[in-house]
Design a protein that fits this description.
It is a single chain. The protein is α+β, with helices and mostly antiparallel strands. It has 3 domains: 241 residues, no CATH class; 77 residues, GMP Synthetase, Chain A, domain 3 (2-Layer Sandwich); 76 residues, SH3 type barrels. Helices cover 47% and strands 14% of the residues. It is built from 14 helices and 13 strands. Helix 2 crosses helix 5 and helix 13 packs across helix 14. It is elongated and about 150 Å long.
Length: 486
């Protein structure tokens, strides 16, 4: 009697076979050791908070100074990594004590890290150690999470959990901590709160949540494959906690994808604007001195701030033509402000040619004697007015003194009174300007209207000028006249 053909194994059994072949389950002793290690490292004790404070300080200062090396140092401390992995293991095996420790450590550690970052940023702005005219690139890069960040956190979480479960791979944990940065996003949240940039704080907090949730889910996958789950013994079902974690992780893809599309559209728009600006500026025989400042208001108007290096003085018609050309290219409403720096190019191999300036000669006519007969007129008396003196007002001259050694604010002429107004030109330190009669007080500084040696009218702080005042002279007037002609 022939035997029936054996039933081929199902696809699920085949997958389990290959996983068992390449990833054998951990023994009972190793599983207990990993659980005990995570339970100890996930406790929010004094040592844990010391590491949180120090890591937050390093991350915040690295972000403020835009130093990638300092930020990497904060990643290496990584006090939040163990509680997040512990949260994944506790959810998988149903360890309530480990869950409680890990959740408390994550929440309290995140609050402490954000508070430290806010305090350091306020302290920096008050002194300041580092002047934050614009947010550093290291801060901006952590405000726009994308699905790529989720994939990085997923790979990092898998590597961290696997290295933790294998004693021979513990040396890989520092590298994993760098890849799955947890503290820099919290530092960025604090900087955003301290500077009033809630968009920055919100984007960075979303990045932290993405990293934390994804790392916890990845650690659950590894521990499930290594046989840490209680439901793993019968092999009949996947633990419910793992399913919920997977759903939460993949739900995070929705806002990340939406933000990525929005950021891509914004980046494409900015690149188009920059390309058009560069093309139109080159037509003026000028070049960009700095990256253009681009802002789009709620009405869709594109506000551009452009600083140019030009070999000649630009006129209003040039700027008006530039604005029209950019608006025509973009098919958008554009408002433009141009700051120009007039430069001269000198080549040491080609010396300047001296051109003599001819002096025009003026012929002075010679007076000749003439004889004339003057009729005799009777003397007349003129009423004698009282002597009066009139002052002749003349514009004063001032010498420029750069009192701000680290900045050139004393050398920058503004279109109107105040540092917020556009810069229309620069004057040399020690040069002379003519002081007109315009005078205003803005933010505690007295501003005066001046004219430089090139004839440009602008405004400078009075504290930066050493005024040379001419003494008013009296113009004598004839008090009495007695005319008699013979």
């Amino acid at each position: 009697m022939p035997f029936p053909d054996p039933t081929p194994p199902s696809f699920r059994i085949q997958i389990r076979y290959w996983i068992r072949k390449f990833l054998p389950p951990a023994d009972l002793e190793r599983r207990a050791e990993v659980r005990g290690q995570l339970r100890e490292e996930a406790q929010p004790d004094f040592d844990y908070f010391v590491l949180v404070v120090l890591s937050s300080m390093i991350a915040t200062l690295g972000l403020l100074t835009n130093s990638g090396a300092v930020i990497i140092g904060a990643m290496l401390v990584a006090p939040l990594m163990s509680p997040i992995i512990g949260l994944g293991l506790g959810s998988l095996v149903g360890d309530e004590k480990l869950l409680r420790y890990a959740a408390s450590a994550i929440i309290r550690g995140a609050i402490v890290a954000i508070a430290i970052s806010v305090i350091l940023t306020w302290f920096n702005n008050a002194l300041p150690f580092v002047t934050l005219q614009e947010l550093p690139a290291e801060v901006i890069s952590r405000t726009r999470p994308s699905p790529i960040d989720l994939l990085i956190a997923l790979a990092g979480g898998l590597a961290a959990a696997f290295a933790l479960s294998q004693p021979s791979l513990s040396a890989a944990l520092p590298g994993v901590a760098i890849a799955t940065a947890l503290m820099p996003p919290l530092g960025t949240v604090g900087i955003g709160i301290a500077t009033g940039r809630w968009d920055v704080a919100g984007g960075a907090f979303l990045l932290f949540i993405t990293n934390a949730v994804t790392i916890a889910f990845a650690s659950m996958l590894v521990f499930f494959a290594l046989g840490f789950s209680l439901g793993r013994k019968d092999g009949k079902r996947v633990p419910r906690s793992l399913t919920i974690s997977a759903l939460v992780t993949f739900t995070m893809l929705l806002p990340l994808t939406f933000l990525s599309i929005s950021f891509f559209q914004e980046a494409t728009k900015m690149r188009e604007i920059n390309t058009v600006i560069t093309e139109e500026v080159s037509k003026l025989d000028a070049e960009l001195a700095d990256d253009p400042r681009i802002e789009i208001d709620d009405n869709g108007i594109i506000h551009l701030g452009i600083t140019l290096r030009t070999p000649r003085q630009l006129y209003h018609s040039d700027v008006d033509s530039l604005q029209e050309s950019i608006a025509l290219q973009l098919q958008e409403t554009v408002a433009i402000v141009v700051n120009q720096i007039v430069v001269a190019q000198l080549d040491p191999l080609i010396p300047p040619t001296l051109t003599p300036t001819p002096t025009p000669a003026t012929l002075t006519p010679t007076a000749s004697m003439t004889s004339t007969t003057t009729p005799t007129r009777q003397p007349t008396s003129t009423p004698t007015p009282r002597p009066t003196s009139t002052s002749t007002p003349t514009p004063s001259t001032a010498r420029i003194q750069n009192l701000f050694n680290n900045h050139n604010q004393c050398l920058e002429m503004h279109q109107d009174a105040g540092f917020d107004h556009p810069i229309i030109g620069r004057v040399g330190n020690g040069s002379f300007v003519t002081v007109d009669y315009g005078q205003r007080i803005v933010e505690g500084l007295v501003w005066v209207e001046v004219k430089d040696q090139d004839g440009r009218l602008g405004w400078l702080p009075q504290v930066c000028m050493q005024t040379i005042t001419l003494t008013p002279t009296k113009t004598p007037t004839i008090s009495a006249t007695l005319a008699a002609e013979n």
